[in-house]
Amino acid sequence: MTATTLPTSQPEPTPAVVNLRRGVNMGNMLESPNEGDWGTYVQEEYFDLIQQAGFDFVRLPVSWDAHADEAAPYTIDPGFFFRVDQVLDWAMGQDLTVILDFHNYDAMIADPWSNKDRFLAIWKQIAERYQDYPPSLLFELLNEPNTALDASLWNEYVFDAVQIVRETNPTRDIVIGPTQWNSYGWISTLDIPDDPHVIATFHYYEPFHFTHQGAEWAGEEAQNWMGTTWEATAEQKAEITVNFDSVSNWAERHGNVRILLGEFGAYSKAPQDSRVRWTTYIREQAEVRGFAWSYWEFNAGFGIYDPDAKVWREDLLKALIP
Questions:
Q1: In the Cβ-directed half-sphere of 96, how many Cα atoms lie within 13 Å?
Q2: Cα(3)–Cα(130) distance, rounded to whole angstroms?
Q3: Cα separation, 83 vs 92, whole angstroms
Q4: Integer Cα distance of 167 and 193 in angstroms
Q5: What is the percentage of the chain residues whose pLDDT exceeds 90?
Q6: What average pLDDT is seen over the chain?
């Protein structure tokens, strides 16, 4: 009689991390106080266009704050949740990865102490609702923490938020950026969790006088920047490479943390040839360092798509996807 070998129990394999490459922000849509307030709505056809153009993910900024109760238990409006479900299904139906981003929580930025419980309660609801979604849905904890939400406080809140998400989503990728508006220069202040399913993000709009010339929200002085060009001089390129190298070196020192350049773009009032040169160079420098990137944004003031004419702005699109 031969002995029977019983199978030994094996640990569950750790799910592979999501490979992000080229993305675009669905800006001015669900992060407005109410969808449509800023002139654009999410449309199903957009995701087919984005996928066909060669992008593999979208970043979806959402103003959860505007759709959750002010008092405990801070319930998110069911109708708004349903709308987000619909948008996620449209995007993922086109095989696009989605970063679900908590955007425009101004009250949290101004008074983080009074809003911490609400912030965590909102994330608990989001995490529970989407816990059975595939790994191609990622969570981004908060867009551009700044001012009162300083580095020390933000690291504390990140720790607590990650714990909340991990209760129901143990292996979902979480995107975390530093304070000072996700500045590249502040990424070194970020206490990144020892977790293979965390991605560090930063935003890049330098030189600001170029990328935000004429921007109505940047103050009256932004009108004085009109006509600023970006000529791809050696000095202009060097500024970008030094800044990107600082992020790359930080990631390497911390165990090769994955990096997402979560936003970059130049406003439509900048000279178009300069916009194309700058966008091309930023994209190239991200890719050469292995950074994933997502352009700001699809079809509003920085947009690569003209929603009225229903055509791509081909020069900007080619700057991103040659």
A1: 32
A2: 47
A3: 14
A4: 15
A5: 93
A6: 94
CA atoms within 13 A on the CB side of 76: 23
Is residue 70 packed enough to be buried (19+ CB in 10 Å), middle (13-18) or exposed (0-12)? exposed
For the segment 296-311, what is each residue's pLDDT rounded down to a tens digit? 999 999 999 999 999 9
Burial class (CB in 10 A: 0-12, 13-18, 19+), 94: middle
pLDDT of residue 123: 98
31 is catalytic: no
Task: Count other Cβ atoms within 10 Å, centred on residue 254.
Answer: 14
- φ, ψ for residue 138, nearest 5 deg: -115, 155
Backbone angles phi, psi at 204, to 5 degrees: -140, 115
Q: Output Rg (C-alpha) for the chain, integer angstroms.
A: 20
Angle of helix 44-53 versus helix 78-93 axis, rounded to 10: 30
pLDDT at 15: 60
Distance, CA of 166 to CA of 172 (rounded, Å): 8
From the list 35, 140, 263, 297, the catalytic residue is 263
Q: Supply φ then ψ for residue 19, to 5 degrees.
A: -95, 100
Catalytic-residue membership of 263: yes
Active-site option among 35, 140, 144, 206: 144
Query: Which string of DSSP letters, residue by residue, matches 71-107?
Result: STT-PBPHHHHHHHHHHHHHHHHTT-EEEEEE---HH
| Cβ contacts of 246 within 8 Å, gap of 6 or more | 184, 185, 187, 188
Token code pair at residue 177: 């950026």
Contact 230, 277 (CB under 8 A): yes
Is residue 321 within 8 A of residue 54, CB to CB? The reply is yes
